[in-house]
Structures are given as structure tokens and as C-alpha cells.
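Many introductory courses stop at the sequence. We go one step further.
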Amino acid sequence: MRFRIVLLFTLFCSIPFLHAQEASEGAMLKRSIAHNGEMRDYFVFLPLGEFTDPLPVVFGIHGYTSTATGFEAVHGMNRHPQKSGYIAVYPQGMHFRVNDAYQVITMEDPTIPLTAGEWEGWGDPRKKAEYEYMLSYSPYDQLKKNDYPNLMITGGWHDAAVQYYEPLKWTARLRDRHLDSAKVLLELDMSSGHGGASGRFAQLRLSARELAFFAGLAADH
């Protein structure tokens, strides 16, 4: 089957008060593909029914600090494939910063911004089968006694979507289960929200600290 490819590029920071409506028809599927020796995750939304003509594929590519499911939650692209006749694909970035470390408990609370809109992507922990599946990949619940790489973990006190206690708890458990001498640093910015520090220079200072962390690691070697 031939597909017409439509690329949709939208760069944004997640906005807590925007919610996407749940799709009335179709299914959101999580898939992985090997590329250059690494596994890359992506989400595919398939409309229900049989279509006689080839369907176009619309790619939703999230920007820095966001995620594939966060992109869909804000833009609501899953609401239209059934009527408009297209397949939606959301590639997950290789290195994205916004994430729920305390995945299962966070996703149980629909009052947290963007939570209900992302049940299709992450899973709905109120359903037993999906709850057990989420435990299998939850960053907090899957930490084992192991050797972990050097990490700089950041969070924002005013983040309404990824609560401040998530990086705190994840860092504490990570340090408890870390077996080697790698660095595990935490920066909790008391003035930041979900999109990071407010203001151009504050963003640059945060980026500078991150680059300094990596430069320090390089100097050690």
C-alpha cells in the first residue's frame, strides 16, 4: 500500500490548562523500531473501519521538553482521523526532558493537567491490565540495584503536570539503588514550571548548567 506523507512540525512547550478530547473512534498503539542500533518508540493512531483508498500518514513531531503523547494531548490530532481519513504517527524523541518518573500514581489522578488526555498513550492505571503494563515500564517502579550512568535530574517547584516530588522521589530511590560511583545530581528550580525556567536568560542559564555538567564529565575522562 502506498502512503502519501504529510509532515507536521509544531514546536511548543506543554501548556498545563489545555486538554485534548479523547478520540471517539480508533486506537492508539505504542510500537518500537530499531534504528542505528537503538530502539525508538513511536505511537500510531489508526482509525476504525475499512478504507478503500490509501490513507495519508500525518507525523506529529514534538519539540524540545515535550513528548509524543504530550504533543497529541495539546493538539488533539486523534480527534479527526476517522472523519478526515488519515493515520497519525507520533515519534518519541531520543532525549526528551519532560517525563513522569512517578508514572503510575501520577496517571491515576485526572485532576493533574494533561493526565486524562494521555491515558491513550501511557495507559489508564484505573484498569487492571493497563495498570500492570504501566508498572512494567514506570521509571520509578523499575529501578533495580544496578550500575547507572551519570545523571543530572531537573524539576520545577511550580510544575503542575510533573509534580516536584517526582524528581525528588526518583532521585532518592536511584541513589539508594546505585551500585557504582557515577554522579546523580538533582536541581529543583524553585521558580520553574512545566516548560522550564521562565524568561530567555533563565532558560539559557539552565542550558549552561546542563552543558557544564556534561563538560565536567568529559574532563574527568
